[in-house]
């Protein structure tokens, strides 16, 4: 359950733009404003807020960069769009706040203390609670409860902050309502994606390939790809119809991205993707690869060691071979290709409505994914 | 940690109004709209949503009724205010959505499966997960994790829904911004109140009387009293200055209410307040009563059995006697009186700015609290 955190800036930020400095400035402005509103609350909460700010600052800003790059490209020819750059920057930063809220709640639900090898927000709070006796293995349950509760509350604070940004933007009310519709859609998809993820892991929901596919789209694709692209479209003054079409591109792009993530974790070289080899198999992650395999006669051999926390390298390699034999590896490649092709078709379909820079930019993003090896 | 759920309609709904029917209609409209937007998500999530709707329908609508009653009274003379009745109804229902979101997250954090003797949302989900083997004592940890995760996600959905209502109301943007400021203030206070509550219970925050008092105000008073009263003031077209004054009244009223709740649980007749006798002492709740006692020489005798899950009636009565001897009981009564007096002064101060019906209504609310015995 990694919410696309393995995205790298090279892979997804539109080429030719560097918005980092202004994104950081706007992020700092948001922090200052939130800190100020929380200044009366006593030292404990302010320390918690500072820990959250530190954690948030470590993000790679993939979503804000995608939003701003797309918006800039879409508005090279329109005056309306250019005038909306300040608003685009605010919404861009809000997508990062939303991402952080989702990550923290995800970590609460999964009981994770680390993200990409470093203590996450919850891990930091846990360590601060008792620095002398900090242990990430079997921490004091009361301390862990405190840290997780901090995670729920700080996540809520950032969900609220995201909504405040969308609700307050200086636009005519109909445009603001379109942004709020998009945020509503994004929240619903993402929450239900997480709901399916937890349900599949805990067997509250029967695992099958369609549910696994739906989960990937809802949990990651919508807020990571569809949200920034559609927000850019709204702010650039595109029609609702074109906004929807751009959204479809985002959904395909994001689904392809998430499926690739699963593919590379299972079949890629661990040295390249940077995760533990076989961690998805060890954790019993219900990917579409597993969803496919479940319906084949090889499943009875695979399930013996699937979701086995003690999985050895040899057993992992055996499962990998079985996943190739049963056709799941080929199916996964085909599905990724299908989504990338669908993307290209949707982009081509928009050629008459968008300027050629946007078309080039979107194609470049598909090509980046197509060539992704880690 | 009961978020004021012991409020009864008699105690707090402004007398002379019955808004229940229109509140239920608007609540149903909100449910339908949310259901429709979630209709594509598969049966498991829709079942979860229906469970949430059922739980939400059981509320006593104290906050919406207070908001609508106050708004109606404030607008008997103004055309603007009357025109805003539809908006007031939407915001009123949003306060109920917010209340539900807070209750569910509170129950997740406390690990509670019941509220007022009935299975709460989490308890319902847990029971649905495995109806044949349902046990509320030592439930299957994986099932409990599923139910709690549902709680986090459904809480988030209702937090988002609350913000959407505030962000979309059909008002001039400056009035909408005032409502959004109020929501921001409410969210921050309530989250920090819960943060302090968990911190005090788990000893992550040093218990003292000021923190306990702050916790009561932030966690309950703001969203239960200040929010409905200030929202009514904004919608009735009151100036920002008068809105702030009405907010101060709400904060005093809410703090008095919460302190009374703590007082009655500890010193009242269990038969009247309907809670287990001594449950606050058994659970180690850091009330202002305990905060006061901590600073006295009787504390060493009290703490022996404070926060003892096996507390007997005799031990409970001993603690109660010690709390009287050390002056905590008297202190508690004085503090409640102080807040009610402060309320009356603040109301009197507004006499020239508000019509006499509003003044009467606010005084009536103070009198109701003053005469409260359960």
From TrEMBL, chains A, B:
PROSITE patterns: POLYPRENYL_SYNTHASE_1 (PS00723). Its cofactor is Mg(2+). The keyword Magnesium applies. Gene3D superfamilies: Farnesyl Diphosphate Synthase. GO terms for biological process: isoprenoid biosynthetic process. Pathway: Isoprenoid biosynthesis. Belongs to the FPP/GGPP synthase family. This is Geranylgeranyl pyrophosphate synthase. It comes from Corynebacterium vitaeruminis DSM 20294. The lineage of its organism: Bacteria, Bacillati, Actinomycetota, Actinomycetes, Mycobacteriales.
């Amino acid at each position: 359950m990694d919410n696309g955190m393995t995205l790298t800036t090279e892979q997804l930020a539109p080429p030719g733009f560097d918005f980092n400095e202004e994104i950081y400035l706007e992020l700092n402005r948001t922090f200052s404003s939130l800190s100020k509103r929380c200044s009366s609350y006593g030292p404990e909460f302010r320390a918690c807020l500072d820990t959250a700010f530190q954690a948030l600052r470590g993000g790679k800003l993939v979503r804000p960069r995608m939003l701003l790059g797309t918006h800039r490209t879409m508005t090279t020819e329109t005056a309306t769009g250019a005038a909306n750059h300040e608003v685009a920057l605010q919404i861009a930063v809000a997508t990062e706040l939303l991402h952080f809220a989702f990550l923290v709640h995800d970590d609460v639900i999964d009981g994770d203390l680390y993200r990409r090898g470093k203590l996450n927000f919850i891990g930091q709070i846990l360590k601060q609670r008792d620095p002398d006796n900090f242990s990430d293995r079997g921490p004091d349950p009361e301390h862990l409860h405190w840290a997780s509760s901090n995670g729920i509350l700080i996540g809520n604070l950032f969900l609220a902050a995201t909504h405040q940004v969308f609700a307050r933007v200086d636009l005519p009310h109909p445009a603001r309502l379109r942004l709020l519709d998009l945020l509503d859609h994004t929240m619903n998809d993402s929450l239900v994606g997480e709901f399916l993820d937890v349900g599949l892991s805990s067997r509250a929901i029967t695992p099958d390939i369609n549910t696994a596919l739906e989960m990937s789209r809802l949990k990651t694709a919508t807020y990571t790809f569809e949200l920034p692209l559609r927000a850019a479209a709204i702010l650039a003054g595109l029609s609702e119809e074109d906004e929807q079409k751009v959204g479809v591109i985002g959904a395909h792009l994001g689904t392809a991205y998430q499926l690739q993530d699963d593919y590379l974790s299972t079949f890629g070289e661990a040295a390249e993707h940077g995760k533990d080899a076989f961690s998805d198999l060890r954790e019993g992650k219900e990917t579409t690869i597993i969803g496919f395999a479940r319906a084949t006669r090889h499943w009875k051999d695979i399930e013996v060691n699937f979701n086995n926390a003690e999985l050895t390298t040899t057993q992992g390699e055996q499962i990998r071979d079985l996943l190739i034999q049963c056709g799941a590896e080929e199916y996964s490649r085909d599905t990724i290709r299908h989504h990338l092709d669908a993307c290209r078709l949707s982009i081509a379909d928009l050629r008459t409505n968008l300027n050629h820079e946007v078309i080039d930019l979107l194609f470049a993003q598909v090509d980046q994914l197509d060539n992704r090896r880690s």
